[in-house]
């Protein structure tokens, strides 16, 4: 019996190659290519008065310099708004090179190509740009005040305004026995993948064909965007993603200016051109996320049940909105988590600032929403003196209420309707894992030794696997080798393993014979991309469907050759045999031979196939009317809606009574992403997600000064946590299958990150005895909060225990 | 993030190195471990016209332990000194401090003398140099000379070293045999530049403290020594806690921290004082 691969903790097949330095990332390609560098704006908001390249012209190795006025046609036009939305009333995008005005530090102004990157930077350093300074709008508060504008023609700095309401909120709020208000704030962070962006282009002037490689999360998107900008037929452009060293959302944005300019230069110059983003460029010219100010008003009954939830928030979208308003829409909808407030109203304003643009970063608006909701839950519990977990459970949507329709519109424009989940069961598991009910005793013991500890909790629901579709194409060779192509990209998720596990099971072949290709438009031209925790759901189901088609064809061919009914056949370990008569058999590779009537005897398999040649019928064509040569299967998976995963985290923290240093003692995760393809990979996703969640809670932030300078644009000062800062993650899983797809799976990619700030804030608040309303938090900030608390500027929690500050 | 053009010199002897340095003077930079210099070059924060790589210069990579000092050559890596059992036996503070210098990979390449010559007030080893009354052995076109640590540091990244001079070795002074030392720092992440750090030497006689000195990381403009003898004299492990207020007051008065994006000056002052208090309690009870 073949071992079932689906659900097994199979070790990642790609890792031996990647961890031994044999990965091929963007910068590993194109050693003879010219290289590009950019003159980027050192100012947050300015008019470009003059650009003088004279001094740069004699730089050794220089190939070319371009400013906006040199760009032809669509190359110089505004970049597209990828995801328009009716509420996005004032979309604005930048250009490949700035024209007349720059709106954030890092915006590209001059494009330089030279024989290598050193020479390109030498030339860039000699280019003089004169600016007329404009006032910089930095931070949500300044943008909201709108005394200065980012874009002259966008009043109030408001790009989008959206209000959604379910039920009669005002009446419910007025009638609520208790009401609380919270003012909350979350600062900016960013994806910061280990590998920055990069693009390499090769123009074949004979074939008039452009091949580009991009470190992207969507090769099909980049291909289409570049073809349009450069005026090339789609058939004359291909885009390939090599190994990608992480994306976390930053690389789903496209086309980046460099993705347009580098191929354009390759065509003009008739020479390969490459651009590899350096770390500083990534900090100031890629994308950030998270910055929001939030106001919550909640009305609830004596039991802590939410009767009315009224949320307003102001979202910092940076200088431009090429990716639309996906992030605040997700905040607005996913804020609800596992809860069912009696009535809900959410209103947001998406605001321009003179800072790096904002597009989804792992979690994509959910960490902010969960922060708002979970801070509210903790506040209700404290107000009523009810256990925090108990208040949550009283507001849960129950399993018997699934599917649950919130009456809101989700990010994909479809109803926010949860497919499945068992929140009470998840909470019970979490309480058991962290020892929720024993914590009071633990705290008492710790306090005897002068230690200050706290317990925090955070719950979330994550819409995953958004459409519209993914496809898969499977080709089985005569050797029995199975080639699987799916168009979405891979940036570390283990697709070579997970998709192969699915195909191995569906086809009944060994895992080793399955080979997966992703993100190559030559192999699969229709694809969306790897983001929104969608790859496993979308391509996972697509490869399963394609494999089922290939299997059906293999069985039909084998049934004809063996003169049995296909219903009597089974496939195990790559061998097709008659159930109960294992000697009547053929390898799956043999059916591939038989599928192709052109059968030059290249190999032993082809020779052996002659025994199954069947009776020659001169009245029939070699390939039947409803058949194609070859053993292949192709299919697409397109769901009606997203599938909703969920999870609950708890953390125990210790805060130093004097220095306010914060240490995470324990971090516990209950995770439900439906049926798991590979629990080891899911666990890895959770660990990585928690690392980014902890980073966002305690370490990372984008420190802009008033003039819009990013003060920590390097790994020296941007504090991405090291392994030494990431706690050991204790996990337990619940598998509530999704009824929406054949495999019952939900996405897992972003899960670990989402409740990080909520959980850590909850735990610190519990340790300190006063509310934590801003994240991230550093020791110095906690120390200052203690001083304000002592001065009476911050109230104590009602439940505040004996802990006192120095 | 690629350096501006520079001329690369790879001298094989000290004389060749000094000759090259004499020729280029202010236009040149010494490259030893490169852990501070290379990032500065890559970000074009420094654009020296000449780089004089002393890694190939013979005779600069030795550690010598003598009666009064531990002598460390200009090309001795942090890791080499950290792992030297002889150096540890003679002057435990070296290993105690070196363990806090960045990460192992950086210590494998970075040099102790280079980090002192770089004179970053956030560096651990300059503060060790002053606490041990170290002596810099310096060579230049005019010959060799010695500079006491107390006279060496003049400001952040500034020293009395001439542009055409090279520190060939540092002699860290050994403490009297009845001295215990310790080093502690607090960084936002393990291995980062410290928010505050302290090196401590407690000398005792008849079971009580007879002398106490401390130096600091990241909270003073230049590394210098705070003499805590008056505050701690006569204290024992049992009663040192009673001196805490005096220690905290002395440290707070001594340090001159500045605010940056990681911590305010007030926080750093508090932290330096608290770390010193805790370190004294730990060292005295060993």
Automatic annotation (TrEMBL), chain A:
Pfam families named in the record: Ald_Xan_dh_C, MoCoBD_1, MoCoBD_2
**Top-level taxon of origin:** Bacteria
Query: Do you know which Gene3D superfamilies this protein is assigned to?
Result: Aldehyde oxidase/xanthine dehydrogenase, a/b hammerhead (3.90.1170.50), Aldehyde oxidase/xanthine dehydrogenase, molybdopterin binding domain (3.30.365.10)
Enzyme class, broadest EC rank: oxidoreductase
Please give one Gene Ontology molecular function term for this protein.
Answer: oxidoreductase activity
Report domain Aldehyde oxidase/xanthine dehydrogenase a/b hammerhead positions.
Answer: 20-135
InterPro entries per the record? Ald_Oxase/Xan_DH_a/b, Ald_Oxase/Xan_DH_a/b_sf, Ald_Oxase/xanthine_DH-like, AldOxase/xan_DH_MoCoBD1, AldOxase/xan_DH_MoCoBD2, AldOxase/xan_DH_Mopterin-bd_sf
Keywords from the UniProt entry: Molybdenum, Oxidoreductase
Q: Quote the protein name from its UniProt record.
A: Carbon-monoxide dehydrogenase, large subunt
UniProtKB/TrEMBL annotation, chain B:
Pfam families, alphabetically? CO_deh_flav_C, FAD_binding_5
The top EC class is oxidoreductase
Protein origin, superkingdom: Bacteria
Which Gene Ontology molecular-function terms are recorded?
A: FAD binding; oxidoreductase activity
- Which EC numbers does the record give? 1.2.99.2
Q: Where are the transmembrane segments?
A: none
Question: In its UniProt entry, what is this protein called?
Answer: Carbon-monoxide dehydrogenase, medium subunit
User: Where does the record place the FAD-binding PCMH-type domain?
Assistant: 1-177
* Keywords in alphabetical order: FAD, Flavoprotein, Oxidoreductase
């Amino acid at each position: 019996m073949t071992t079932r691969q689906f659900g097994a903790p199979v070790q990642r097949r790609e890792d031996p190659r990647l961890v031994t330095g044999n990965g091929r990332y963007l910068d590993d390609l194109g050693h003879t290519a010219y290289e590009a560098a950019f003159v980027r704006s050192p100012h947050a908001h300015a008019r470009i008065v003059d650009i003088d390249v004279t001094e740069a012209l004699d730089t050794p190795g220089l190939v070319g310099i371009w400013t906006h006025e040199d760009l032809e046609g669509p190359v110089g036009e505004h970049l597209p708004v990828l995801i328009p939305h009716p509420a996005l009333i004032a979309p604005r995008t930048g250009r490949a090179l700035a024209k007349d005005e720059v709106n954030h530090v890092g915006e590209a102004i001059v494009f330089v190509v030279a024989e290598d990157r050193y020479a390109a930077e030498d030339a860039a350093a000699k280019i003089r740009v004169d600016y007329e300074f404009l006032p910089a709008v930095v931070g949500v508060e300044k943008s909201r005040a709108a005394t200065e504008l980012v874009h002259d023609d966008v009043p109030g700095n408001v790009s989008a305004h959206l209000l959604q309401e379910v039920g009669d909120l005002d009446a419910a709020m007025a009638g609520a026995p208790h009401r609380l208000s919270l003012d909350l704030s979350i600062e900016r962070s960013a994806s910061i993948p280990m590998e920055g962006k990069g693009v390499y282009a090769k123009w074949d002037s004979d074939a008039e064909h452009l091949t580009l490689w991009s470190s992207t999360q969507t090769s099909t998107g980049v291909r289409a965007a570049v073809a349009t900008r450069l005026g090339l037929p789609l058939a004359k452009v291909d885009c390939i993603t090599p190994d990608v060293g992480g994306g976390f959302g930053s690389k789903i944005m496209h086309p980046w200016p460099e993705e347009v300019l580098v191929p354009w230069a390759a065509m003009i110059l008739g020479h390969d051109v490459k651009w590899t983003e350096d770390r500083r460029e990534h900090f100031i010219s890629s994308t950030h996320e998270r910055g929001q100010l939030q106001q919550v008003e909640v009305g609830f009954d004596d039991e802590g049940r939410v009767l009315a939830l009224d949320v307003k928030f102001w979202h910092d979208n940076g200088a431009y909105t090429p990716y639309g308003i996906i992030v605040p829409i997700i905040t607005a909808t996913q804020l609800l988590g596992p809860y069912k407030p009696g009535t809900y109203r959410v209103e947001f304003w998406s605001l321009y600032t003179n800072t790096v643009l904002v597009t989804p970063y792992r979690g994509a608006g959910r960490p902010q929403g969960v922060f708002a909701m979970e801070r509210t839950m903790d506040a209700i519990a404290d107000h009523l003196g009810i256990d925090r977990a108990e208040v949550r459970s009283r507001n849960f949507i129950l399993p018997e209420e699934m599917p649950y329709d919130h009456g809101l519109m989700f990010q994909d424009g479809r109803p926010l309707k949860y497919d499945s989940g068992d929140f009470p069961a998840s909470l019970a598991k979490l309480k058991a894992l962290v020892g929720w009910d024993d914590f009071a005793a633990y705290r008492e013991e710790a306090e005897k030794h002068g230690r200050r500890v706290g317990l925090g909790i955070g719950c979330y629901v994550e819409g995953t696997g958004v459409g519209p579709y993914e496809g898969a194409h499977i080709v089985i060779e005569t050797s029995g080798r199975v080639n699987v192509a799916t168009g979405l990209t891979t940036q570390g998720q283990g697709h070579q393993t997970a998709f192969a596990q699915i195909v191995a099971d569906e086809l009944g072949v060994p895992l080793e014979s399955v080979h997966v290709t992703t993100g190559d438009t030559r192999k699969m031209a229709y694809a969306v991309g790897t983001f929104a925790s969608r790859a496993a759901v979308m391509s996972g189901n697509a490869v399963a469907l394609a494999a089922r088609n290939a299997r059906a064809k293999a069985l039909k061919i084998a049934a004809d050759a063996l003169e049995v009914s296909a219903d009597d056949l089974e496939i195990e370990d790559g061998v097709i045999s008659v159930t109960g008569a294992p000697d009547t058999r053929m390898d799956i590779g043999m059916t591939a031979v038989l599928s192709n009537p052109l059968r030059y005897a290249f190999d032993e398999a082809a020779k052996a196939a002659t025994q199954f040649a069947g009776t020659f019928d001169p009245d029939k064509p070699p390939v039947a009317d409803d058949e194609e040569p070859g053993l292949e299967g192709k299919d697409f998976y397109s769901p009606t809606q997203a599938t909703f995963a969920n999870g609950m985290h708890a953390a125990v923290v210790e805060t130093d009574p004097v220095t306010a240093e914060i240490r995470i003692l324990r971090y516990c995760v209950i995770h439900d992403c439906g049926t798991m393809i590979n629990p080891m990979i899911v666990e890895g996703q959770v660990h990585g997600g928690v690392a980014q969640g902890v980073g966002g809670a305690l370490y990372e932030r984008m420190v802009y000064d008033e003039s819009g300078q990013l003060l920590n644009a390097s790994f020296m000062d941007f504090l991405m946590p090291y392994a030494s800062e990431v706690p050991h993650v204790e996990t337990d899983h619940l598998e509530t299958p999704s009824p929406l797809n054949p495999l019952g799976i939900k996405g897992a990619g972003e899960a670990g990150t989402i409740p990080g700030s909520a959980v850590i804030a909850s735990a610190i608040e519990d340790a300190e005895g006063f509310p934590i309303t801003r994240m991230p938090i550093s020791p110095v900030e906690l120390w200052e909060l203690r001083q304000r608390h002592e001065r009476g500027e911050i109230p104590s929690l009602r439940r505040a225990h004996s802990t006192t500050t120095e | 993030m690629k350096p501006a053009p520079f001329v690369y010199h790879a001298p094989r002897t000290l004389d060749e190195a000094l000759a090259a340095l004499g020729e280029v003077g202010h236009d040149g930079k010494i490259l030893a471990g490169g852990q501070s210099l290379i990032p500065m070059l890559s970000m074009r924060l420094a654009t020296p016209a000449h780089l004089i790589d002393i890694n190939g210069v013979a005779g600069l990579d030795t550690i010598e332990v003598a009666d009064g000092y531990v002598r460390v050559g200009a090309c001795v890596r942090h890791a080499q000194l950290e792992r030297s059992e002889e150096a540890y036996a003679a002057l435990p503070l070296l290993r105690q401090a070196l363990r806090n210098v960045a990460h192992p990979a950086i210590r494998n390449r970075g040099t102790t003398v280079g980090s002192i010559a770089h004179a970053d007030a956030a560096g651990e080893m300059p503060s060790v140099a002053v606490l041990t009354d170290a002596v810099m052995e310096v060579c230049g076109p005019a010959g060799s000379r010695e500079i006491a640590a107390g006279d060496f540091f003049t400001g952040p990244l500034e020293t009395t070293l001439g542009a055409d001079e090279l520190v060939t070795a540092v002699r860290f002074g050994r403490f009297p045999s009845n001295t215990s030392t310790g080093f502690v720092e607090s960084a936002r992440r393990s291995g980062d530049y410290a928010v505050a750090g302290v090196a401590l030497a407690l000398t005792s006689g008849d079971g009580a403290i007879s002398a106490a000195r401390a130096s600091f990381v990241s909270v003073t403009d230049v590394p210098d020594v705070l003499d805590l003898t008056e505050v701690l004299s006569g204290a024992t492990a049992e009663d040192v806690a009673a001196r805490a207020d005096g220690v905290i007051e002395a440290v707070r008065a001594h340090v001159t921290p500045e605010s940056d994006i990681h911590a305010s000056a007030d926080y750093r002052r508090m932290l330096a004082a608290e770390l010193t208090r805790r370190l004294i309690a730990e060292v005295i009870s060993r």
